[in-house]
Amino acid sequence: MGLKKLAAGLALTASLFAMSAAKAADIEVTHWWTSGGEAAAVAEFANAVNKSGDKWVDGAIAGSGDVARPIIISRILGGNPMGATQLNPGHDADELIKAGLLTDLSDLAKKEDWAHILRPASQLASCTVDGKVYCVPVNLHSAQWMWTNRKVFADAGIEPPKNWNDLVKAAPALKAKGIQPLAMAQGWPVGLLVGDLIVAIAGGDNFVKVYKDRDLAVANGAEFGKVFQAVADARNMVDQKAVTKQWNEAVGLVISGKAAANVMGDWAGGEFQVAKMTPGKDYDCLPGLGVTPVLNTGGDVFYFPVVKDPGLKAAQLKMASTLVTKEVQVAFNLKKGSLPMRADVDLAAANDCMKKGLEILDHSKAVFPNDVQMLDRDSINQINDLMTNFFSKPEITPADAQKQFADIIKAAPKM
Amino acid sequence: MTTFDTALVGASSQPPHFQQFSNLVRYGVAGLMAVIGALALIFDFPFAQLGVFQPMMYALGLVVVCLVIDVPFRKLNYQLGMIGVYLFGAAAAWVAWYSGGNWLSQDAADFIWKVTALFSFLFTIAAGVWNAPFKNFAAKTAAIPMMYIVLFAFIGCSLWTVLYSTSDARIYPLYTYVGLKQYYRLFGAEIWHIAVKNVLIYIALSTTGAMVAGFLLAVFMDQKIRLEGLFRTIYLYPFALSFIVTGHVWAWIFSPEYGLEKSVRQLGWTTFSFDWIANNDMAIYCVIIAGLWQGTGLVMALMLAGLRGIDEEVWKAARVDGIPKWRTYISIVIPMMRPVLITTLVFVAAGAFRVYDIVVALTDGGPGISTTVPSQYVYKYLFSGNIGQGLAAATTMLVVSAVILIPWVYVEFVKGKQIR
Q: Smallest CA–CA separation between B262 and chain A, in Å?
């Protein structure tokens, strides 16, 4: 009896030790990829990491970047870091880097020659602070897309729109049929729509002038005045009763045919793919809202917080390297609807939307930085608040909104 | 015996409730502290886990230990010495941080700081036990967790909040004094004005609503009705749901696309319109309705307890005098229930003041930003790039609630006692 107990105890101890030994390479990854297309894409990363011998412990945070970012940052600050985390390229992590909380990946980047295999250069530049690389870019996203459901237009007897202006013209006819011309989600998607309208109407150069160079003359000028007028047009097109809470619900309205169009980044492509729809046949994707075919270079990057466990440290570097291998890049980006970081991969399986994006990315100068890469998050939040308020209250005039916008740009700290 | 207990007078002159520990305990505690100290230094625990709060935890630890073992009043010299040792380490850490590691390297300062903080902390405990007797040891030991929470969470963190609201800390809490800049921005922000207006409407309507409805329900329940237990459960049930669940359920009900409006229209009344939740001016009332639905049950339970506490003799006397029932409630029962009423009011008002989760679940501040509340503003800025701004908003909330609560505490507890 006593011996049995002893043996059981020993076995238990042994298994505990075995568990803690296996745990050394468990790598907890936080991200906010929870919609259908995103979840399918992140599973590709998880598979690749598991295959490399480590164990991917999924730390998905439902909601959006606005929900997840505070959680991720406060965990790193509070001394309870995850193994790796998604963030957007930009200035969100600047202070964490200054505080020495994120791992320096420079050696790995040099060894694998990231500077040459990853393009465009702006993405790696966003990861680089004082000459050191702190994150690995995994994909390119652009926000300037309009998505339209062709069947809705065909049923209404209207030619599917080629650009934003066509949609504005078609709006009354669609409304008469009981279809929402433009589906919208509340919060940051409003800011995204405004950003897209700025680029489409005022042009990418002016966008950079205002966001990066803080040119107040342009922000107060006539070109931006047209932008705010266009936002007011969009405000009239949207059925305020049907504004959804999440971006993917708004895309869902387009997919199901309750709404005709939605303005959203290329990550919406993943949703159409999950719904088994074909671009050009079931739906159209129009870069630059069809007005000016330009794309910005947002995307996702992975940061690796500094940890003490040497086993986990090694796993972090291995994961960073895995994420930019050719196979993983292709598998992930096809599902995500985003563009791969490497130019040397075979994208025969890509759909028409992605090919349109690649075409602009590789052969055009119409590529410019993302707002997060030019402005601090605090100012972007203020702009989003302003735009959502403007968008939901018809009594605010475009001129008022433009003035408040210029004030935020004026007060934003230099980056 | 040893150097640090020579000043102790003989046991005979101590009051009877003072006690001296046996040598076994004294050596045991001293040894234990030495082992903890050694292990902590070797394994670097708990330094890595405490993060930015380390210095505060240790300073507070020292204060708590001093309070518990009563040493400052007995053994002032070496106690001051220990605090001195601690402050030396803290100063080293500060010098390194202030100079960015130029005058003293971060690692060296870290080490000095760890050793001194640990030493002063553990030595104070060991010496305290060694130097027993002291007063009410068990009671004070039991109070340690509470002392920590009060000193650290309530007082310490509040002071930290106020201090950092005068900084321009963004993501990382680094202190750079900027005066009242954060407050100027706060009071100039339209979204803050909307938030304040919303919370005032919410407090006014949800407290009066919950108090009146809760009281009426309690009176109804007090009429010796049948199935009282069942009704009580039904009324109290919403309170068992979290605000998040309540918010989501009501979001469906209010939604013009799926909820009440559509159902009524499908029943045949096609012009029926109920779209408050999509209306900038009315959405806040949706939040209030959902909040009332959830909160009234609790008020009813508290009020019912108050009503049951009224002596049956009071009712009999009122009946003998021929006073109508409603008059008895208003003129006799309600005044007698004053303590319950006040407590409930403070409960409900405090809950309304910090309203957060139901707004997040029900409207998420929308449409636009029209149902934003102050706690949402605090959270939003605190964790996404502007700590100083979030803390300025938090400080404003703290000051406002203090202005309301302190007179109440004074009247209820301080002045009331003096009169009685």
A: 12
